[in-house]
Design goal:
This protein has 186 residues and is mainly alpha-helical. It contains six helices and no strands. The protein starts with a helix and ends with a helix.
Length: 186
């Protein structure tokens, strides 16, 4: 019962995080044409690059699910393997995001340049910060799986980490569609 209460509380936390992202999306949508004479999404964004990031995150969601299946089957080695794959995919995603941010900054497209860039860096950067948090949490989960028995409280904590990871993938699908899709096509 205690684990169910914690999972319910975590769902409430995710909904508050969703509200934060909704506000960031609304801000981006309002400001996406506010370039102040600077570059727009069409000038900066590479749909192929964003698609690569998307494929990394969607694949990581799949491998995270495989890890959870192994956890429920009490297959620690399989769970550790799939979480390590998920971790590597998450790091690869962050590396691509860092490369993209670095290229934009090198071109003079910084967050101070325009309302569009400010809202872009805030939205995508907040997602990247959440990914970083998820990766740290995943490391804790890996140690938990390796060093402790898979009892209900541990499984519940790992389940909440997996929910968080899937939530970030869900948010990214909207970032890909709204930010990169709208930015390159409109």
């Amino acid at each position: 019962m205690e684990n169910e209460t914690k999972v319910f509380g975590f769902w409430i936390y995710l909904m508050t995080d969703l509200i934060i992202f909704a506000v960031l999306f609304a801000t981006f949508i309002v400001l996406h044409n506010n370039t102040f004479g600077g570059p727009s999404g069409r000038d900066l964004f590479s749909l192929r690059f964003a698609l690569a990031e998307t494929l990394l995150l969607l694949t990581s969601s799949f491998t995270c699910t495989l890890a959870m299946l192994d956890i429920h089957r009490e297959k620690k080695k399989g769970a550790i393997f799939w979480l390590l794959v998920t971790f590597v995919l998450g790091v690869a995603f962050l590396v691509l995001e860092w490369i993209e941010f670095s290229e934009f900054i090198h071109e003079g497209a910084t967050w101070q340049r325009s309302g569009f860039l400010s809202s872009y860096f805030t939205l995508v950067g907040t997602h990247g910060l959440h990914i970083s948090t998820g990766l740290l949490w995943m490391l804790v989960a890996l140690f938990r799986i390796g060093l402790r028995p898979l009892l209900a409280p541990s499984i519940s904590k790992i389940f909440r980490m997996a929910l968080f990871w899937h939530f970030l993938d869900f948010v990214w699908i909207f970032i890909f569609t709204v930010v990169y899709g709208m930015g390159t096509l409109l």
